[in-house]
Amino acid sequence: MKPPIGRDTMMCMSLSARPGNFGSRFHNHLYDALGIDAVYKSFSTTDLAGAIGGIRALGIRGCAVSMPFKEAVIALLDDLAPSARAIDSVNTIVNDAGRLTGHNTDYGAVRTLVQRSGIAADTPFLLRGSGGMGKAVAAALRDAGQTRGTIVARNPAAGQALAGQYGFGWVAEPADAPEAAMLVNVTPIGMRGGNEGMLAFPDAMIAQAVLVCDAVAVPAETPLLTAAARHGVARITGAEIAVLQALEQFVLYTGRTPTTAQVAAAAAFAAGNETVSGG
């Protein structure tokens, strides 16, 4: 059991347009399990520069970063770890005595899960979305051996830039895309509070897929994931991504690595409340 909160308690946090409870529940559960004197709280803000200044001034140890701050936050940091520098997207800030370094743990989570799925290298895929999460996932797929990709993005400038960076193709809509065995959604389509009733890809396209990945974590069963299950297609869920990226954050903040059983318990506890933020 961790000590009671006091003046030496380490503070960690998250910044998101839609603050949730997953990160708070996951991290705080592990603090309890490992007896770490720390507390984690989620926040939103309309003053990103002020929030980052507060992290520095108050000695907040770590901060998870979610939409729409993953790219805008870069200019406010002192340094970028290789995981963030390579893709110009930050989802994690680590504060070392006032020096703020940006990391990207989405990248590692997606790469690990794709490799665990057993899907063949160089499988044709469609990646819908071109924002901060899209950058992390595109890099993760490329580094997992998936080079035959097409970016699906309505914003031609962002979509073509991301496609060009990794040698992928680009189309504006799924209907214009070539056939693909792997479908990946990194847009808010299917997210609770947004377009939660919509499919990120047409049902006929899902039926022909071998693997579907949805980065949306709330609800746990998005329309895309439900359709994949109905067609017997293998899945990577947003909840799986959330757990792995949060675990890497936890290690960065604390220097401690929990056991597999401790991580599973924290994930189950966090999943008891479906509201998921960016860490």
Q: What does this protein structure show overall?
A:
The chain is of the alpha/beta class. The chain folds into 2 domains: about 10-105 and about 240-270, Rossmann fold (3-Layer(aba) Sandwich), CATH 3.40.50; about 105-240, Rossmann fold (3-Layer(aba) Sandwich). It is built from 10 helices and 12 strands. The protein has helices at about 20-35, 50-60, 80-85, 105-115, 130-145, 155-165, 205, 225-230, 240-255, 260-270; strands at about 10-15, 40-45, 60-65, 80, 90-95, 100-105, 125-130, 150, 170, 180-185, 210-215, 235. The strands form 2 sheets. Strands 2-1-3-5-6-4 form a 6-stranded mixed beta sheet. Helix 4 (about 105-115) crosses helix 5 and helix 4 packs across helix 9. The two termini are about 20 Å apart.
Instruction: Based on the coordinates given, report the CATH architecture of the largest domain.
Output: 3-Layer(aba) Sandwich
List the total number of helices: 10
Approximate shape: globular
Helix vs. strand class: alpha/beta
Order of helices and strands: EHEHEEHEEHEHEHEEHEHEHH
Largest sheet: 6 strands, mixed
CATH class of the largest domain: Alpha Beta
Strand order, sheet with most strands: 2-1-3-5-6-4
* Poorly predicted regions: 274-279
Question: What's the N-to-C terminus distance?
Answer: 22 Å
Oligomer status: single chain
Strand content: 15-25%
CATH superfamily of the largest domain: NAD(P)-binding Rossmann-like Domain
Supply Rg.
18 Å
List the helices and strands and how they pair.
Elements: E1 10-15, H1 22-34, E2 38-43, H2 48-58, E3 62-65, E4 79-80, H3 82-85, E5 92-96, E6 99-103, H4 105-117, E7 125-128, H5 132-143, E8 149-152, H6 156-166, E9 169-171, E10 182-185, H7 203-207, E11 211-214, H8 223-230, E12 234-236, H9 238-254, H10 260-271
Parallel strand pairs: 1-2, 1-3, 4-6, 7-8, 7-10, 8-9, 10-11, 11-12
Antiparallel strand pairs: 3-5, 5-6
Helix pairs in contact: 1-9, 1-10, 4-5, 4-9
